[in-house]
Design goal:
The structure holds 2 protein chains of 2 kinds. By secondary structure, chain A is of the alpha/beta class. Chain A has 2 domains: 20-60 and 328-434, Alpha-Beta Complex (Aspartate Aminotransferase, domain 1), CATH 3.90.1150; 73-322, 3-Layer(aba) Sandwich (Aspartate Aminotransferase, domain 2). Chain A is built from 18 helices and 13 strands. A 7-stranded mixed β-sheet of chain A has the order 2-8-7-6-5-3-4, sandwiched between helices. In chain A, strands 9-10-13-12 form a 4-stranded antiparallel β-sheet. In chain A, strand 9 (355-356) and strand 10 form a beta hairpin. The relative contact order of chain A is 0.17. Chain B is of the alpha/beta class. The radius of gyration of chain B is 23 Å and the shape is globular. In chain B, helix 6 crosses helix 13 and helix 7 (119-131) packs across helix 12 (290-299). A 7-stranded mixed β-sheet of chain B has the order 4-10-9-8-7-5-6, with helices on both faces. A 4-stranded antiparallel β-sheet of chain B has the order 11-12-15-14. In chain B, strands 1-13 form a two-stranded parallel ribbon. The N and C termini of chain B lie far apart (48 Å). In chain B, strand 2 and strand 3 form a beta hairpin. Chain B has 16 helices and 15 strands. Chains A and B meet through helix 1, helix 2, helix 4, helix 5 and helix 7 of A and helix 1, helix 3, helix 4, helix 5 and helix 7 of B.
Chain lengths: 487, 473
């Protein structure tokens, strides 16, 4: 009576049975390594340290203190329960007005109050993930394309393309000019699309950049605006790392550029925002679509029905972000702590001859390990990466997963751990780099390529690991999606 | 306009339908028992406001759940960082237990087969993305929830083909209706991927019979297609015994993981109706098919449930005392309130479909129509909105094939407001139609656009010309 798998597959959509979700890439081996052997400072000091997760854990103490002192921000405490019913019932996709006002206020302050945001243009979404998908649904039809400068966040392929049928076309950037986006590269990518008969609907930029950690300078931003204006295509600016900029040059938002003396059809300008990085609240799913185009606001708002922010969370965030004292203190402290962490990290690495792209924002560094590659190929990058995961016991993200055109770059996150863990990570890197003065050669028996983690690798550390009990990460009681956290 | 997508420029979002226009009118002039006693009373909103006291008192006794604490320790950071699309295990466990409890524990659910989504809105859309390609179709019995036109069709590109149900048998699904719908789809060159039913039904306010469920299962078995059972109103059935979940019938038919049809049955759930928490955006997909669970889980990235909310509800739903008491009290109060609405309608000479669930009644006002047409239904609806000042939902917005039916909600307003609404309705009917009042005396009859009646409380304006007396129905 059984039916074949292919029968069952035919009964599901192409979307469900295909690979558009992007989670089958070998890139996730690092995650599997971490999940099966997660570092813990006392319980598993030899475990894999998670450095592939762009999370911001630097300022929870400030928030926790605030939450304790502001019980009315929660609708469940004695102080707030009188609002429980009204909040629980409220499902208007416009969102709580106080929520929108508070978010607009926060966004303005993060930009040093150089610009203000209109609360009526704040549209909710299921995190930035939902925001990107919504924007794609609003701006493009299946088969249309967005230009995206490389390297870029791997999740974009899923967020912008999976269910929408939209494709991403890379805009070439490389280390010769510190990965800056040039007009020439944009034109080349655009022309390539034209030749292939693909309709380009927009350009997607992330500023500050993931994975580079850099901000776009004024001239570049202006040239991007000029470009999209000439081509009559949209500009989507992912500014989710806006508050993670910790030193000069300061962050310039697209919101500031369009107020300058520059020719620009504002109907083409859209911002994606979220509280996941700046505040460290990925679990609360607070995504924002901010568009200067009224039709997009209206459409995105209707689509937000598919990913509204829980009103319980809206209420909490509204209280928090309208407390200007907290907001100012948070922004300042966050920048200060990120700066200290970044400086310690990059200085220590520099001392062992390892450089990172010069950056002043983000929750990570873009580490240059090209000199450790046996040959400048992506195969060699994979070999190096597997060594770092299994030998050095650090889960970092290889540049190829970000569509980087040059092998040898790695994104290494530093804001998701305490000082002690960071020091341990640094010492592991120091030891590793000192040990491998020669480039890493691929092993003949290629055992790295097996996803089975029980490598019979001749190293003391590996033996230790084999002996220690298998522990799941405290964040991961059951196998969790790497892609959810690969941000 | 070519700058935006087709999704953005056409109105396939469905929000121009009358269903939403009534809302807009209400927003402009909402009733308030103190500040605006002449305003429009909202009876078009299927909300459950009857049992908040139970939740509020639980909250008062359980401060930890609220204050980001577990066993006295702060877990704020842990929660704020938790974005695993598999969901908080404790929450999923509590939720499946709650779902089982609502079904009198006649069936159980495996938390590993549950996918959390941002409300049933997202659950339904996600399921369709998983089961159907653009251009394919699902069959849905009419009348159905107007939001399906958006949730199931808009961004998915999937079509809905109606299964016509009529008042002749209480709008139950029949075999000929199923076959006819399937053939209609074939005629239109649409490949049917599944049937989607809402049980208990919105807008009918009835639970599906065992017969109907068996019929459906046989049908989807025969055609080799999916069955989606939207059971978001399961906790609003006035008695647990009267609600039969499709999962129960599968069990009765001895269907298990070895049967083909087992993997093609999917359930959608939410806490918006049963618990009255629509703002919290808690929806779920339950599927026996691992591939569907896997795909839907990945798609849930676009609409996860806030970890803050998962934590709160995990604590709430794990409290078996609360859930037991809540389920029973909820059923009791809903039943009582429905009775009140039904009797109020009767006093106005209006009957409704005999209902045993839901937050609304399916009301028959066909005898008040000028003619047996949807134009007449619209005219009547507009009078009810603008003159009687009640926002109710016309059957046409629910794709009902027979004019004259309206969905009237009863659980989102106080008893006093419900009484007032019924008084207004009674007065309206008495003024306009040849309907005997409680003393048996007929009230005024003929309608003419030149005639105005002024009353102590109400001033009616005729909105159309030249009417003939209402034919008897």
């Amino acid at each position: 009576m059984g039916f074949t798998l292919s029968n069952q597959q035919q009964l599901l959509s192409k979307m469900a049975t295909g690979n558009g979700h992007g989670e089958n890439s070998p890139y996730f081996d690092g995650w599997k390594a971490y999940d099966s052997d997660p570092f813990h400072v006392t319980k598993n000091p030899n475990g894999v340290i998670q450095m592939g997760l762009a999370e911001n854990e630097m300022c929870f103490d400030l928030i926790q203190e605030w939450v304790l002192n502001n019980p009315e921000a929660s609708i469940c405490t004695a102080a707030g329960v009188n609002e429980f019913k009204d909040i629980a019932i409220f499902q208007d996709y416009h969102g709580l007005p106080e929520f929108r006002n508070a978010v607009a206020n926060f966004m303005g302050r993060v930009r040093g109050n150089r610009v203000t945001f209109d609360a009526d243009r704040i549209v909710m979404s299921g995190g930035a993930t939902g925001a990107h998908e919504t924007i794609a649904f609003c701006l493009a039809d299946p088969g249309d394309a967005f230009l995206v400068p490389v390297p870029y966040y791997p999740g974009f392929d899923r967020d912008l393309g999976w269910r929408t049928g939209v494709q991403l076309i890379p805009v070439a950037c490389d280390s010769s000019n510190n990965f800056k986006v040039t007009r020439a590269a944009l034109e080349a990518a655009y022309e390539k699309a034209q030749k292939a008969n693909i309709r380009v609907k927009g350009l997607l930029i992330t500023n500050p950049s993931n994975p580079l950690g850099t901000v776009l300078d004024r001239d570049t931003l202006r040239s991007l605006v000029t470009f999209i204006n000439e081509k009559k295509i949209h500009l989507v600016c992912d500014e989710i790392y806006a508050a993670t900029v910790f030193s000069q040059p300061s962050f310039i938002s697209i919101a500031e550029i369009i107020e300058e003396d520059i020719e620009c059809n504002r109907n083409l300008i859209h911002i994606v925002y979220s509280l996941s990085k700046d505040m460290g609240f990925p679990g609360f799913r607070v995504g924002i679509v901010y568009s200067y185009n009224d039709d997009v606001v209206n459409c995105a708002r209707k689509m937000s029905s598919f990913g509204l922010v829980s009103t319980q969370t809206q209420h909490l965030i509204a209280s928090m972000l309208s407390d200007n004292e907290l907001v100012e203190r948070f922004i300042a402290q966050s920048a200060k702590r990120l700066k200290a962490r970044h400086m310690r990290f990059t200085m220590e690495l520099a001392q062992v001859g390892t450089s990172c792209l010069k950056s002043n924002g983000g929750l990570f560094v873009w580490m240059d390990l090209r000199r450790l590659l046996k040959e400048q190929t992506f195969e060699a990058e994979m070999v190096l990466w597997h060594t770092i995961i299994h030998e050095v016991k650090l889960n970092v993200s290889p540049g190829s997963s970000f569509h980087c055109p040059e092998p040898g770059w790695f994104r290494v996150c530093f804001a998701n751990m305490d000082d002690k863990t960071m020091e341990i990570a640094l010492s592991r890197i120091r030891n590793f780099v000192a040990q491998y003065k020669e480039p890493i050669a691929p092993r003949k028996n290629n055992r790295y390529w097996q996803s089975n983690l029980r490598l019979s690798f001749q190293s003391r550390r590996m033996d230790d690991i084999m002996m220690s009990p298998c522990m799941m990460s405290p964040h991961s009681p059951i196998p969790q999606s790497p892609l959810v956290r690969a941000t | 306009m070519h700058m935006l997508s087709r999704n953005a420029t056409f109105n396939s979002h469905g929000q121009d339908s009358s269903y939403f226009l009534g809302w807009q009118e209400y927003e402009k002039n909402p009733y308030h028992e103190v500040h605006n006693t002449n305003g429009i009373i909202q009876m078009g909103l299927a909300e459950n406001q009857l049992c908040f006291d139970l939740l509020e008192s639980w909250l008062a006794k359980n401060p930890d759940a609220a204050a980001f604490k577990k066993n006295g320790e702060s877990i704020f950071a842990e929660l704020a960082l938790f974005q695993d699309y598999h969901g908080l295990p404790a929450f999923k466990k509590a939720l499946v237990d709650f779902m089982a409890e609502i079904r009198g524990n006649k069936v159980t659910f495996d938390p590993n087969h549950l996918v959390l989504t941002a409300g049933a809105t997202s659950a339904n859309e996600t399921l369709i993305f998983c089961l159907a390609d653009p251009g394919e179709a699902v069959l849905i019995p009419t009348p159905y929830y107007p939001g399906f036109d958006r949730d199931l069709k808009w961004r998915t590109g999937v079509e809905i083909v109606p299964i016509h149900c009529t008042s002749s048998n209480g709008f139950q699904i029949t075999e000929p209706a199923l076959q006819e719908a399937y053939q209609e789809a074939e005629k239109r060159n649409l490949r049917v991927k599944g049937v989607l039913v809402t049980n208990p039904s919105n807008p009918l306010g009835t639970t599906m019979t065992r017969n109907e469920l068996n019929l459906l299962l046989s049908f989807v078995e025969d055609k080799g297609i999916h069955l989606i059972s939207d059971e978001i109103y399961s906790g609003t059935a006035f008695s647990s015994a009267s609600f039969i979940s499709v999962m129960e019938v599968l069990k009765d038919r001895k269907c298990d993981e070895n049967s083909e049809v087992w993997q093609r049955v999917h359930v959608v759930y939410s806490l918006s109706k049963d618990l009255g928490l629509p703002g919290f955006r808690v929806g779920a997909i339950y599927s026996n098919d691992d591939m569907v669970v896997a795909a839907a889980t990945k798609m849930s990235s676009f609409g996860l449930v806030s970890s803050q909310t998962q934590h709160l509800l995990s604590a709430m739903l794990s409290d078996k005392k609360l859930t037991k008491n809540y389920i029973a009290e909820n059923q009791k109060r809903l039943k009582q309130r429905q009775k009140k609405l039904v009797s109020g309608l009767q006093k106005a000479g209006i009957s409704c479909l005999k209902g045993n669930a839901g937050l609304f009644c399916w009301v028959d006002m066909s005898h008040l129509l000028r003619s047996n047409t949807f134009e007449a239904e619209m005219e009547l609806w507009k009078k009810i909105v603008y003159e009687v000042r009640l926002n109710i939902s016309p059957g046409s917005s629910c794709h009902c094939t027979e004019p004259g039916w309206f969905r009237v909600c009863f659980a989102n307003l106080s008893e006093e407001t419900l009484d007032l609404a019924m008084q207004r309705l009674k007065a309206f009917v008495g003024e306009y139609y040849n309907v005997p009042d409680v003393t048996g005396r007929s009230q005024s009859s003929q309608l003419s656009h030149s005639r105005r009646r002024s009353l102590t409380k109400w001033v009616f304006r005729l909105s159309f010309d030249d009417r003939s007396p209402i034919p008897g129905r």
